[in-house]
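Format notes (please read before filing issues)

Several people have asked whether sequences and structure tokens are stored in separate files. They are not. Every record keeps both together, in the order shown below: the sequence lines, then the token lines. Line labels are part of the format and must not be stripped during preprocessing.
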Amino acid sequence: MSGNASTPREKWGGNIGFILAAAGSAVGLGNIWRFPFITGQNGGGAFVLIYVLCVLLVGLPIMICETTVGRWAQSDPIGAFGKIEPTPGRRTRTVAVLLFLSAAALLFCRHYGQGAILMILSVTLAVKGWRIIGYFSALVPMVILSYYGTVGGWTIAFFFKGLAHSLNFTTPERAAAVLQSVTEDPRIAVPYQLGFMFLCAATIWFGVRRGIELVSKLLLPLLFLLLVVLIIRSVTLPNSFEGVRFLLRPDFSKLSAEGVLLAAGHAFFSLSVGLGLLTAYGSYLDADKNILTNSLIIVLLDTGIALMAGLAIFPALFSVGMAVDQGPKLVFQIMPIIFNSIGGSFGWFWSSIFFLLLAIAALTSGISLLEVTVCCLVDHFRFKRHGATVLTAVVISAIGVLCTISLDDWSRLPALQRAITFLFGGAKGSMFDLADKLSSNYLLPIGGLVISLFVGWVWGTDNVVRQLPANPATGDDAPKPPLAERIFWGIAIRFVAPAAIIIVFLHTIGWL
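Then the structure lines:
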């Protein structure tokens, strides 16, 4: 199954297409599901303020790093990082030594699985160079999408349940029973998960312009419109202004050090950085587009939609007198109760809108996760797009089925549990929990860290700054960027972003 090397590389049809596609990749379940409940658990406005600052100081620089690498190289993540440094240089070997020492420390502390992964990464980096980031970028989205597709399937199932008036419950017990009926019955959960993956694959099948760009132009405005409708309904409820105040007025007495680290971590993850995703999307970007302006717009869209989700949820919570710190069950259990408690007989309608909104957010992110691996297969391994799409979707769906049928424990997958216990010393929770923990706590931070280290210390921040404007100057004789810009981005990319990621990583693994 080989591709045609002479086929012209696909490009975005316009700047709006790139912005909406990149924003769609960032606007996912994290914005509408995770952001409201962690905001509720950490005091509201003060947490939001820290989150926004971290988005600008940590998320934005790494987003710019990924996008500039992709546009400069005009290649998939594997080819892009290999093109910048074909063979390992002195600084690369230095980083490899530091990673090796870190791996040794993890092994000494009996974190055998994590230490082994980092050891393999350090040795591969020393031998093959930074092309390892590209391979990492091709594999990590597959792990994430395997369990993300499970939750995406739930959102579609709840949308149809809303239309069928099956979400008309008003008690937590009934809400828990309905959620359990969807998540724990493979006859329901698996078909919806496969349906979600089919929608992602069908979009990728049609390519960049006729697939990703077209769907993004349709779904992102629809998502925004649905949010506006829900906000209008929420803020017009009695006593709803207290929810607006909770979200937007900072009260630092309610914010702990734990909350600050959580805000930093969510700011990093919510932008979908560290995955090579923006490297792939950046490779489809023409030279006449301004990366800095586009990145700022994407950040504003992503953060704005997260805040809009809060404005749709917290006023309604305060209006019906429910606690704001409901946790992960807030979306699938508490929101239908709220919609059924605000009067009238339209609870099913508001629930349907809400879960359609959630399904759109999940789908736009799922599409981008699938595209990263497909892009690597097409560019680096010369697959046809259609073949790469089918192969990747089938593999991810197969892993996803394992996640779906083992949501609560390993009882359905005892052999796999024994294998993972042998390798990592334990397999707590389930296959779903393992994929989630591995991605969130290890793979994403490591990906973001190595990208910032590579761009800051190997490729150089001068090259990043040169790529920011439209029609950037290239070549050895290209003038140096202004000193102020070089200093600002140098500090942000070389020091601030890596330091923040390391702190968040140490916090998530329990060392801080």
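For reference, the curators noted about this record: Residues 431-467 form the longest helix (37 residues). The radius of gyration is 22 Å.
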